[in-house]
Amino acid sequence: MPAPNSATVIGLGPMGSAMAQVLLRNDVAVTVHNRTAARADALVTAGATRADDPPSALRAADLILISLIDYPAMYALLGDATDELSGKVLVNLSSGTPEEVREAARWAADHGATLLAAGIMVPAALVGDPSAYTFVAGDRAALQQHSDVLGLLGKPEYVGADPALAMHWYQAMLATFMITLTGVYQSAAMINKAGVPAKELMPRLSELLASMPYFLADTAQLLDDRRYPDDGASLAMMTAGIDHITRMSESAGIDPTVPAAVRTLNLRAIDMGHAQDGGFAVYEAIMVPGTEERA
Ligand code: NDP
């Protein structure tokens, strides 16, 4: 019978290892398992129990935290251990698609387990920090049953009974994070080609990013309504701008893929009749995929 204040962590990359460390620091009895066993060594030294195989890992606790590169890796580890799943709450904190999450929830239920999907919204170094939070979706009672332990990692933000909702929220947030950072790197490359180091650019970019709430403030309702009144920055003007960024990237000898992708979207929104609308009318091109993307 597993101890009440216990958890198994499966997957010991940077994120799973950080989770296990935070739980150990908070006196949770932690069992760990990883495909590459050596990655558990430091955690065992810190007080964790090593499970040599997936069935032992599942037997050790009722709460199973899974932190793997993707959902297929979960089946690779647990697919031959399904006899041990009955009664377990699996919290899968791995990145995946909504379809993969729903399939995993069905798979867990078929074996008598409950799967909660979760997406932790901080890097590994900030797990357990007051700023950390986790989108969680699935069976609310299972979350409540284990919220004390899960809350040690980051505040659980319950987003709905459909487990896929955790990934809708998580991936939507990451989309802005990753695409914004890619824009930062594009800017750094552009300024580098003018002989200016990135460290001179970053304070300016920090100011720009801090001003983003101004651009978001009135946009939410308009996006929901799919109305794009010109706000003094028309789509036609913004498209000329992104065209300059694309051509400047090309002539500077850096990769133009990112600005060219934005230009493509803008041009399609113009084709849809939005040239004189606000620049955020590009939302229409995102919402309605072009035929070339569908092919
Ligand atoms: P990775 O995404 O690189 O995942 C590493 C883990 O996946 C290791 O335990 C690795 O085992 C295991 N793994 C990979 N392929 C397989 C396989 N075929 N079978 C079994 N195990 C496999 O590292 P992270 O720890 O950084 O991320 C884990 C999850 O956390 C990801 O889904 C990520 O999106 C999410 N996340 C990560 C953040 C971060 O800052 N790192 C932030 C927020 C979320 P092995 O050691 O044997 O290779």
What is the compact description of this entry?
With about 300 residues, the protein is an alpha/beta fold. It has helices spanning about 15-25, 40-45, 55-60, 70-80, 100-110, 140-155, 165-190, 200-210, 210-215, 220-225, 235-250, 255-275, 280-285, 290-295, and strands at about 5-10, 30-35, 50, 65, 90, 115-120, 135, 155-160. Helices cover about 55% and strands about 15% of the residues.
Write the layout of secondary structure elements.
Layout: E1 6-10, H1 14-25, E2 29-33, H2 41-45, E3 49-50, H3 54-59, E4 63-66, H4 71-78, E5 89-92, H5 98-110, E6 114-120, E7 133-137, H6 140-153, E8 155-160, H7 164-192, H8 198-210, H9 212-216, H10 219-225, H11 235-252, H12 257-274, H13 282-287, H14 291-294
Parallel strand pairs: 1-2, 1-4, 2-3, 4-5, 5-6, 7-8
Antiparallel strand pairs: 6-7
The structure holds NADPH dihydro-nicotinamide-adenine-dinucleotide phosphate (NDP).
